[in-house]
Request: fold
Amino acid sequence: MNTFLIIVNIVVLLLLILGLFMMQKKHVSFSKRVFTALGLGIIFGFIIHLIYGTTHDVTVGSIDWFNIVGNGYVKLLQMVVMPLVFISIVGAFTKLKLTKNIGKISFLVIGILLGTTAVAAAIGIGSALGFGLDGIHLDQGTAEAARNQQLQQAVVSVKDVTLPQQILQLLPSNPFQDLTGARPTSTIAVVIFAAFVGIAYLGVKRKDPEHGEFFAKIIDTIYSVTMRIVTMILRLTPYGILAIMTRVTATSDYAAIAKLGKFVIASYVALFVMFVVHLLLLTFANLSPARYVKKGLPTLAFAFTSRTSAGTLPLTIKSQTKDFGVSEGIANFAGSFGLTIGQNGCAGIYPAMLAVMVAPSAGINPTSASFIITLILVVAISSLGVAGVGGGATFAALIVLSVMNLPIAIVGLLISVEPLIDMGRTALNVSGAMTAGILTSKATGEFEEEVYQQPNIVEA
Reply:
């Protein structure tokens, strides 16, 4: 009987996919198809949850099949992340787009990412204090929750790496290994390696123009093929979001969410306020925040459902270049650095809130100016090297709590609501990277404002 019910659920998903495909055939806009998929996924997943619950064999079996579409789409995106980062940055050198301002671009992108993370930390502190979360008590159950194997491995990993060592890990020692994404900091390492290749190309071009021209043609050809692959994958976005959102709503632990509802609400209030900060920064740059929201929503929606900044990278770059008028070089720098440096949600708001929550149990006044200033600085510095995948916030929190000498058991308590909060955090991370790219492009004069002002979203 269970097998039959699983087949029924699979058929329903296939029918929903067919409906989205028909919308595409009728040339319904990309953004409308994305949000239709989001809504259908929420409804379908909630129905499965309502009928079977989260642990029933039918739910588990159905989701296992749904993951072929959802996780398969994410894997395809991750497949092109490293080739896209490498070839795009090298291509920016061969097209003479980064030769004059590479130092300024790097400084601005990293500075904006770290600066906004510091602001995010301050907002997280304010939200935790405003909702009265600083009075939490770590009981025995909380301590037991912190002793699960996943958290213990994370604690060991964090304690074994000092902050200087963490910064050192950003540098590539084996670029071919990093091209496989083997390390959490592989993306930044590939960016650095690609920059070296680009600078080397400029030297070859000066001394041997013939070889330089030949190399540039090879890079341009590979870039064209890579972008074609990216376009093919991005067309699958509505189907991937449908499957992912169905899984999320079908398997979420609503009882745990209700129990920790105050923290969830406080987190989303902080995330929303920080998103408003992004819009204010764009406003100060004389750019329409409404236009940013309208054009950026499909990308932010995918980040929200997938919970992976790395998997969202092709969309992040596409939105910057095609929708916002950011130059290719800056878009790749901002998108790539935004994966592991200065993530506003995972490395900014979340660790700051947790530190405020556990400070009283360590005998520290979380409202003292010295504690707040120190925490903001630690969060900003510790945001270097946070992995751009689901779970990166856990490592960021462990690093901050360890540096501040605060109890880490709180991380175990919140694991049950991690997926729900991580959705908003990931969307904010991506928004931070896109905002950094737009502001940097505007500051360096490599910004096509007419593209930004165009009302229509470029289709994937």
Observations:
- Residues 138-156 have pLDDT under 50 and may be disordered.
- Residues 57-94 form the longest helix (38 residues).
- The two ends are 41 Å apart (CA to CA).
